Structure formats: C-alpha cells, structure tokens
C-alpha cells in the first residue's frame, strides 16, 4: 500500500485502478482526484484538493498552477469527471457559455488531449 499525503503523489510508472484504490489514506470512497500538467505530461493523484497537486508537480507558484487541469476518476465505472476549480480559468479563456458550470471541462479537444495523458499513467 502506497502512502500519500494531502498533496498527492506524482506517478512515475503506469498504475491501474486497484493501485489507486489502495492508496493510503483513501480520501474519497468512489473516486480519486487527479491533477494533470499538460506541458510536462505529468499526473498527480490522491490529493485532498486538485490545487494541492501543483505543489508536487512543480514549484507551486501561481503561474505554474495556472497551467494545470483537474478531474476525478471513478473506481467502479472508470468514468472521468473533468470537474475542478483548476479548470475555471481554462474555460473562461475559451469563452465558456454563461449558463455552464465553469468547473467542468467541455472542450472536446482539451479533454481528448488530457485523457491521452491520463491513459499514459493510469490503465482504466
């Protein structure tokens, strides 16, 4: 069992759902939070809040955190929910519709790019 603090851990090899489910402590029963840096193609998992991943993915400065995206991977369904406060600035930048929740990614190109990166590190 891999121990992880509130900031999460950066993956260094591909893992599967069972590996993620066995992180200690398990913060959420049905899913695990992850943060992606699309520039370095690194993924951090297991944090309390998506923004905490920035402190282990890089130097934790606000400029660095501005490049990150966050989501949740559900264990039983393998569904990725692209919901995070990190996603708000990206949605605003591309002109999110006023009636949409800015925490949810909806841009198909961005989602495809991020899912490609996530699948490098997580077999789901």
Question: Any descriptors?
Answer:
124 residues; alpha+beta; 5-stranded antiparallel β-sheet; two-stranded parallel sheet; 5 helices; 27% helix; globular
In short:
The protein has 124 residues and is α+β, with helices and mostly antiparallel strands.
Given the helix and strand composition, which structural class is it?
Answer: alpha+beta
Helicity level = 25-40%
- End-to-end separation in angstroms reads 19 Å
Order of helices and strands: EEHEEHHEEHHE
The total strand number stands at 7
Shape: globular
Strand content: 15-25%
Assembly state: single chain
Number of domains: 1
How confident is the prediction overall: mean pLDDT? Answer: 88
Q: What kind of sheet is the major sheet?
A: 5 strands, antiparallel
Q: Topology, please?
A:
Layout: E1 9-10, E2 15-16, H1 17-21, E3 31-37, E4 42-45, H2 53-57, H3 62-65, E5 69-74, E6 80-81, H4 88-93, H5 108-121, E7 122-123
Parallel strand pairs: 2-7
Antiparallel strand pairs: 1-4, 3-4, 3-5, 5-6
